[in-house]
Design goal:
single chain, 388 residues, mainly alpha, 16 helices, 68% helix, elongated
Length: 388
């Protein structure tokens, strides 16, 4: 009872501080909500659509006109312009007007009719990785389809049967299955991990800021009095309002993604809810540890920012962990979002139960060690300051 009363007293004190100075909570909440809205709107179509591409048509034939028509008819790209020279198209790409362009040499159609395998050159701007890759995929596919269609008509007129024609055009047929994301929806890949990470590390920053503010305002003594001198209860009570608030926001975001937006959820909702709450809590533990260990509030917030920023690169959803050096593979385990990503993969994508994702739950709880260390450091510093 004494423990619960101490935590409750600190919790009530922190709630009053938030009510008296609500601008930080409001700004961070608006930032998280706007991030969700921006990404949901930006990825609403699944993939970027109508990317501008060009065609350098030096052939002026039926084949080149058909390629332009087929490219413009696809949803992924649109023909921005047809150029008369390679230099014009290259300059347009350098100005950022194109992400890719075809160069169709003169005599291409005649060589197709004579089965001489003409060469069409495809240029893509990989300075924009996603746009360049999608443009390349669309242009390469349409080029192969257009050429195959012309060859099919020529072979048909020469008396070949349909089976013979397909054997010549496509000797080996491939059947493709896109596991877990058959729509190739970029939003499913991006939002399911990025949005919870944003909420988690906003909670980290806010927790770190709340503890650092006590140092800056020199109110640690009054804070500890509310917790009856127990630094662990003091830190837990200060964390609790932000744990509840940001967990609620993250759960609402997940409800919208997996419910309203229809993102795949093959496993248990309860496990994903538990993963989300533990993600917020473990991120707060890291923020509390940093802020309790560093006496300088500015330095503490800088370290919290650095820790949060690095997590997006070292969590494994933007760049595969397996391709990183061994040192960074081990370093990734220090970030809660890595364990959330693994849980999301096991539960939402593969539909596995607790027997497959319990190591990640243990990792979340292990971040409580940071909370204990931070509380111990705060207690030691408080005693040192009191003695002085």
């Amino acid at each position: 009872m004494k423990k619960s009363n101490s935590i409750l007293r600190v919790f009530q004190r922190e709630c009053r501080r938030v009510i008296n100075q609500p601008r930080y909570l409001v700004i961070l909440t608006l930032g998280a909500v706007l991030t969700f809205i921006i990404f949901a709107t930006m990825t609403g179509e699944g993939q970027p659509q109508r990317l501008p591409v060009g065609v350098v048509d030096l052939d002026g034939s039926y084949l080149s006109r058909r390629i332009c028509h087929e490219l413009d008819a696809t949803s992924g790209v649109q023909v921005h312009a047809v150029y008369n020279s390679h230099i014009e198209a290259r300059r347009a790409m350098q100005r950022g007007e194109l992400f890719a362009f075809y160069e169709i040499p003169k005599g291409t159609y005649n060589e197709v009719l004579q089965f001489k395998a003409p060469r069409m050159v495809l240029y893509t701007n990989q300075a924009y990785l996603l746009a360049g890759t999608l443009s390349y995929k669309q242009l390469a596919t349409m080029g192969m389809l257009a050429t195959g269609a012309v060859q099919r008509e020529v072979l048909r007129k020469k008396g070949f049967t349909e089976d013979q024609i397909m054997g010549l055009i496509q000797p080996v047929a491939f059947e493709t299955h896109n596991i877990s994301n058959p729509w190739i929806n970029y939003g499913i890949y991006l939002m399911t991990t990025l949005i919870p990470a944003v909420f988690a590390f906003i909670a980290l920053m806010h927790t770190g800021y709340a503890i650092s503010t006590e140092r800056r305002q020199k109110s640690i003594k009054r804070w500890m009095q509310k917790a009856r001198g127990n630094s662990l209860y003091a830190v837990l009570g200060k964390m609790l309002p932000y744990t509840l608030w940001y967990s609620l926001l993250a759960l609402i975001a997940n409800l919208v993604m997996f419910g309203f937006m229809g993102f795949p959820m093959e496993g248990s909702w309860l496990l994903m809810v538990l993963s989300t709450i533990l993600l917020i809590f473990s991120a707060q533990c890291a923020g509390a540890f940093i802020s309790c260990c560093l006496n300088d509030p500015s330095l503490a917030m800088s370290v919290c920012t650095l820790y949060s920023a690095m997590s997006f690169s070292l969590s494994g959803f933007s760049y595969p962990i397996e391709s990183m050096p061994l040192f960074f593979q081990a370093f990734c385990l220090l970030y809660p979002i890595r364990h959330y990503f693994l849980n999301y993969r096991e539960v939402a994508i593969y539909g596995n139960g607790f027997d497959q994702c319990w190591p990640q739950f243990c990792a979340f709880l292990a971040f409580g060690i940071l909370l204990l260390l931070g509380a111990w450091m705060l207690h030691w510093q408080t005693r040192k300051n009191t003695a002085q």
